[in-house]
């Protein structure tokens, strides 16, 4: 087979661009149109108008590093937002970088980390490369993180427990009271890392942040991000809330700082409360629209508290993915052991309508009784 120069350049670009761009390009090549991307838990409504204005004004300063004063102002704004001192806050290039730093700190040299499966893997995957001993605990029958089983998995060698709440990919959530009781029952020296990336979309009674445990002196680290409700996934900015001692340790493990656009856009977005409230309202409304349709179609789903829905397609996931891609819609990847389940991002209202129409089209026709 002979490849043209264009083929080689296209292939090289896909390799450099990463999985998201590769999927988009593959779908575009087959149809000639941009696919509908509902597989990355992105917020289609952001960044906020205030954040966009901040970025636009800073374009001429794109040649500059963010000043220390600007980073300090962002940290101060976050601290005010969270109701605690700036010494409890550290920023990173997305909460993912901070999760990796925590994976390094608590997993290196054989440190044991307990986590659910499936859950978000940024921390555990990175920790595994640093020599960590990982203990994975299956979800319970409601696809929630099984705190009883996770507590039983804690041993004398355990350094940290990771809780993604609401959980990714299932979208299920633990109540704040459940997490508080879990933390109180852990041995001294075991840190609970609570990833609250999707907390802004939670609506279930009792589900809320446990960042106040940090102020109370508990061994807890809470992660938040500007990627979800703030719609800034491409700008890369997140933060951790922890004791000053842990913040100092994380500061020694991170490798980068947020770029100038993320620093100023993050601060602006925190103040754009009307946009954030409207964004939450629209995403929660569309999420309910999806679950209502799934119920009507008699398809099972996990109780969602994020900006995505995890549901049983009723067929092998590769088949469902293929059928949806033929309709120019990209859906979520496989999460073992749920071989027929799909994670679908909540898009805009028109995107949700397009997804539901395609879903109805690909499902097998109901069998009539004889």
What does this protein structure show overall?
The structure is a single chain. The protein is α/β, with parallel strands linked by helices. It has 2 domains: 18-41 and 274-362, Aspartate Aminotransferase, domain 1 (Alpha-Beta Complex), CATH 3.90.1150; 49-272, 3-Layer(aba) Sandwich (Aspartate Aminotransferase, domain 2), CATH 3.40.640.10. The strands form 3 sheets. Strands 2-8-7-6-5-3-4 form a 7-stranded mixed beta sheet, with helices on both faces. The chain has a two-stranded parallel sheet with strand order 1-10. Helix 3 (49-58) packs antiparallel against helix 11 (260-271). 43% of the residues lie in helices and 14% in strands. The protein has helices at 5-17, 19-31, 49-58, 68-82, 95-107, 122-129, 147-153, 176-184, 212-215, 244-251, 260-271, 273-296, 317-326, 349-362; strands spanning 36-37, 89-92, 112-117, 133-138, 158-164, 191-195, 220-225, 238-241, 308-312, 329-330, 341-345. It is globular and about 60 Å long. The termini are far apart.
Main-sheet strand order equals 2-8-7-6-5-3-4
Number of DSSP strands?
11
Mean pLDDT: 92
H and E order: HHEHHEHEHEHEHEHEEHHHEHEEH
Radius of gyration: 21 Å
Give the helix tally.
14
Low-confidence stretches: 1-19
Give helix % range.
40-55%
> Per DSSP, what share of the residues sits in E-state strands of 2 or more residues?
5-15%
CATH-assigned fold name of the largest domain:
Aspartate Aminotransferase, domain 2
The CATH superfamily of the largest domain is known as Type I PLP-dependent aspartate aminotransferase-like (Major domain)
CATH class category label of the largest domain: Alpha Beta
Distance between the termini: 54 Å
Largest sheet: 7 strands, mixed
Broad structural category = alpha/beta
């Amino acid at each position: 087979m002979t490849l043209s120069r264009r083929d080689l350049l296209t292939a090289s670009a896909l390799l450099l661009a990463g999985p998201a761009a590769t999927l988009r390009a593959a779908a575009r090549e087959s149809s000639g149109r941009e696919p509908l991307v509902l597989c990355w838990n992105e917020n289609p409504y952001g960044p906020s108008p205030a954040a966009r204005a901040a970025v636009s004004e800073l374009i001429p300063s794109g040649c500059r590093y963010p000043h220390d004063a600007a980073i300090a102002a962002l940290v101060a704004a976050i601290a005010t937002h969270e109701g605690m001192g700036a010494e409890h806050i550290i920023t990173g290039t997305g909460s993912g970088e901070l999760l990796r730093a925590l994976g390094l700190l608590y997993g290196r040299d054989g440190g044991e980390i307990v986590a659910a499966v499936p859950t978000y893997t940024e921390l555990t995957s990175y920790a595994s490369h640093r020599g960590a001993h990982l203990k994975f605990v299956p979800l319970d029958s409601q696809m929630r993180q099984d705190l009883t089983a996770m507590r039983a998995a804690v041993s004398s060698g355990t350094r940290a427990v990771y809780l993604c709440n609401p959980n990714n990919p299932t979208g299920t959530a633990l109540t704040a009271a459940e997490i508080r009781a879990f933390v109180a029952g852990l041995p001294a020296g075991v840190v609970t890392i609570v990833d609250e990336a999707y907390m802004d979309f939670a609506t279930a009674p009792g589900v809320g942040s446990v960042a106040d445990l940090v102020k109370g002196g508990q061994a807890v680290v809470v992660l938040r991000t500007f990627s979800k409700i703030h719609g800034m996934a491409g700008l890369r900015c997140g933060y951790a809330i922890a004791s000053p001692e842990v913040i100092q340790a994380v500061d020694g493990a991170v490798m980068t700082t947020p770029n100038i656009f993320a620093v100023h856009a993050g601060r602006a977005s925190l103040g754009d409360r009307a946009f954030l409230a409207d964004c939450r309202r629209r995403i929660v409304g569309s999420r309910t629209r999806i679950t209502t349709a799934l119920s009507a179609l008699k398809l099972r789903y996990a109780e969602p508290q994020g900006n995505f829905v995890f549901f049983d397609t009723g067929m092998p996931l590769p088949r469902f993915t293929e059928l949806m891609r033929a309709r120019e819609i990209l859906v979520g990847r496989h999460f073992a052991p749920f071989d027929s389940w799909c994670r679908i991002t909540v898009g805009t209202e028109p995107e949700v309508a397009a997804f539901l129409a395609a879903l109805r089209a690909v499902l097998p026709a109901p069998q009539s009784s004889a």
